[in-house]
Amino acid sequence: RMEGFGYYTLPMGNEYRGWLWDGMFHGEGELGLPGGGGYRALWDRGVPTKGKYAFADGLEYEEEKWHYCDGYDRRFYTEICSGFKPPGIPQLTNLDPPKIIPEGCYDCGDGFYNPKTRIVVDYKRKFLRNADDEEHEWILRTCRRAWDITTEYKLKP
Can you give the pTM of this predicted structure? Predict the structure, then answer.
């Protein structure tokens, strides 16, 4: 069994970097996600006892006093850190510029969703999951679509 400091990649692409004991996460370690971000924790025989999640952009999740995107302040984290863009230049996602959505698909936050195949792929087009009915309806109702992207009107010379 694995013991000591090491790296372990799980089947879905998550990677653990930290201390192992008897084949389990044990001690300080971080479980990184393929799209960025991760959970840094103190582990006890595979169970996190104390930890903190950080998103790919560096925003740390606060369980008790979470004020990000709480209904009163709807700014993206990059807007909180860097300020607003000038008037007339919208910021559609936290990632700026946003990912270009393939035709007929939706941007569902961790990848693209094709409603015809009901498959979610990551931004590198690697399979993530099949969407169930509930997720399908939520994506269609709330997520940004490829055909929603507006272009500025330009006068002909």
Answer: 0.53
Single-letter amino acid, residue 99: K
pLDDT digits (tens, 9 = 90+) for 30-79: 999 877 889 999 999 989 998 998 887 778 887 777 766 666 777 777 77
Question: What long-range pairs does 144-148 form, CB within 8 A, spacing at least 24?
Answer: 144/92, 144/93, 144/98, 144/101, 144/106, 144/107, 145/101, 145/105, 145/106, 145/107, 146/101, 146/102, 146/103, 146/104, 146/105, 146/106, 147/103
Residues 86, 4: Cα–Cα separation, whole Å:
51
Strand, helix or coil for residue 146: helix
